[in-house]
Amino acid sequence: MMPEQEVRIPAGNATLEGSLSVPKDARAVVIFVHGSGSSRHSPRNRFVAQALNNAGLATLLFDLLTPEEEVIDIHTRQHRFNIDLLAERLGSATEWISRQPAVNGLRVGYFGSSTGGGAALVAAAFRPDQISAVVSRGGRPDLAGTALEDVRAPTLLIVGSQDDVVIRLNRDAMAQMRCKVELKLIPGATHLFEEPGALEEVAQLASDWFGGRLQPPSVS
């Protein structure tokens, strides 16, 4: 496993907990945006993050909510669908990562899951010069609303072939996007990609997508 550095990210009045992994000679950095009811400890996101580390990409996984906010959200769910708040927190993490010496100057990508997919696209729309690629796993790009038209980063949407509702939502979102966007269906997979080999395929697709679009500035 890649060594992790536990970090604290200022985000307005909040401080968010995160885990930063930087392989030797990292080529780029990918910020993970977890879905509703999850956290930086999501085993699925951590699996994909490890695959990206093995491919030479640094990763930042962080909690979108503070512990106090998570307690409230468990009972009220008032934060998990607040895409503007989540995108704002992601923006704070993006600004924070840009100041870290270990990844200074590297291109940045977003990997969003579930509602995090919507937040990633909103944040990418507001940072066309900072974000070079987006991958969404089982995401809700429809939650990005009118921001979809402003996304410039090449975007890969990954959905399980058995996740019918989310497939439709992703296709509807694609129709509103003007950037390069592709939809990949994982055969036999459902929403959580629990089927044998499904998550491995997600990790490979993400690694290929980021690897081809997050080249160091001197190479591109």
Tally of alpha and pi helices: 6
State the CATH class.
Alpha Beta
Level-2 CATH architecture: 3-Layer(aba) Sandwich
Helix proportion range: 25-40%
Tell me the span between the first and last alpha carbons: 29 Å
- List unreliable stretches of 5+ residues: none
Question: Measured on Cα atoms, how large is the radius of gyration?
Answer: 16 Å
Give the structural class. Answer: alpha/beta
- Which outline best applies? globular
Q: How do the strands line up in the largest sheet?
A: 1-2-4-3-5-6-7-8
What number of structural domains do the residues give?
Answer: 1
Order of helices and strands: EEEHEHHEHEEHEH
What is the average per-residue confidence, as pLDDT, rounded to a whole number? Answer: 92
Number of strands: 8
What's the name of the CATH homologous superfamily? Alpha/Beta hydrolase fold, catalytic domain
Task: Give the biggest sheet.
Answer: 8 strands, mixed
Q: Beta fraction of the residues?
A: 15-25%
Could you name the CATH topology?
Answer: Rossmann fold
